[in-house]
Amino acid sequence: MILITIIFLAYIIDLIVGDPYGFPHPVIYMGKLISFEEKSIRKSKINKKIGGFIIWILTVLVVFILSSLIVEFANINKVLYVLVSSTIICTSFSTKCLAKEAEKIYYSLKKSSIEESRKQLSYIVGRDTSELSREEIIRATVETVAENTVDGTIAPMFYAFVGGPVLAMIYKAVNTMDSMIGYKNEKYKDIGMFAAKLDDVFNFIPARISLVTFGLAAIVTGYDYRSSLKIGLRDRKNHKSPNCAYSEAAVAGALGVQLGGTNVYFGEEVYKPTIGDKKRSLEAEDIIRVNRLLYASTAISLVLFSIVYYFLISIL
C-alpha cells in the first residue's frame, strides 16, 4: 500500500507544482550525460551502432546506481522514504508541464501571433515549425500532447508501480535518450538505433494501455468515446513507430479530427499516414480539449494501476 500512497502523492505534486523553472530536474543532468557520451563516441573510432549501445548501457547504469543510492539512503526513515520516493517519481511525470506548454501555444494562437505560436511549438516538438500554418500548429500540438501523455506520465507511472522510483527513473533515462538521439535521419540512424528500439520496447505496454484510458477519458470529458475506441483500434498502426499511433488515434477519434501527415525533421521530409476521420477541421479549442483528455487519462491510469497493483499484492 505504501507504493500506492507514494505514487498518488507524486501525481498530486506534479499537478500542483509541475516542473518549476530553475528546478534541478534529473532530465537536465541525464541530457548532459547523454550529450557528453554522444560527443565522446563521435570523436572516437568506435562503430556508431556499438557506440549507441554503450551510451544506452552507461546512461541506464548511472541512473540506476544514483537513484538506488538515494532511495536506499532515504529508507532510514519511513517518512523520509515516502517524501524522497514521491519526489523522484514526481520528476518522472510531466502532466502539468505538458498542458502548460500546450496552453502557451493556444493563447498565442488566440492572439493571432503565428510566429509566437511557431516558437512555442518548437520547444516541445522535434519537427521544423518555421513554416507551419495555423492548422498545422494545432495538429502538431494535439499530436504532441496525445503522444507525450504516454511518454510523460502513463509510462513512468506504469514503471513506478512495477519497480518503484528507481525503475521510473530508468524509464525516464530511456525516453530521454530516444528524444535526443533516437532519430532515423542520416545523423542519428546508427548511433541512435539502440535508443530508439529500446524506447519502443519500454513503451509497448503503456501505449496500448493509453488506448483504454483515453477511451475512458472521453467518457469523463464528454467527447466521443465510441469513436475514440473505434479509431484507436482501426488506426493504431498508422505510424512508423509501433506505439505512437495508439494514443494519437484514440485522441483523434474522441475529438473527431484527423492527425498525421508530412512533417519536416532536421531538413528532411517525413511522411506519416493520416490518423482519424476528418469530421471537421482542427481549431484552437482542440488544444484545450486534448489537455482535458490528458488530465483525465492520467488520473484514470493512476486509479486503474492502483486497483491492479492492490489486487496483485493481495493474492501474491
Structure explained in plain terms:
With 316 residues, this protein is an all-alpha fold. It has one domain. It contains eleven helices and two strands. The protein has helices at 2-17, 26-43, 48-74, 78-92, 95-110, 114-122, 134-181, 193-221, 225-234, 244-255, 285-315; strands spanning 263-265, 268-270. Strands 1-2 form a two-stranded antiparallel ribbon. It is a multi-pass membrane protein.
Which SSEs are present, and which pair or pack?
Elements: H1 2-17, H2 26-43, H3 48-74, H4 78-92, H5 95-110, H6 114-122, H7 134-181, H8 193-221, H9 225-234, H10 244-255, E1 263-265, E2 268-270, H11 285-315
Antiparallel strand pairs: 1-2
Helix pairs in contact: 1-4, 1-11, 2-3, 2-7, 3-4, 3-7, 4-7, 5-6, 5-7, 5-11, 6-7, 7-8, 7-10, 7-11, 8-9, 8-10, 8-11, 9-10
**Rg measurement, Å:** 19 Å
Helix content, binned percent: over 70%
* Number of beta-strand segments: 2
Q: Compute the average pLDDT.
A: 94
* Structural class category: mainly alpha
Strand content: under 5%
Sheet with the most strands: spatial strand order: 1-2
H/E element string? HHHHHHHHHHEEH
Outline: globular
Biggest beta sheet attributes: 2 strands, antiparallel
- Poorly predicted sequence stretches spanning 5 or more consecutive residues: none
- Please give the domain count: 1
Number of helices: 11
First and last CA, distance? 14 Å
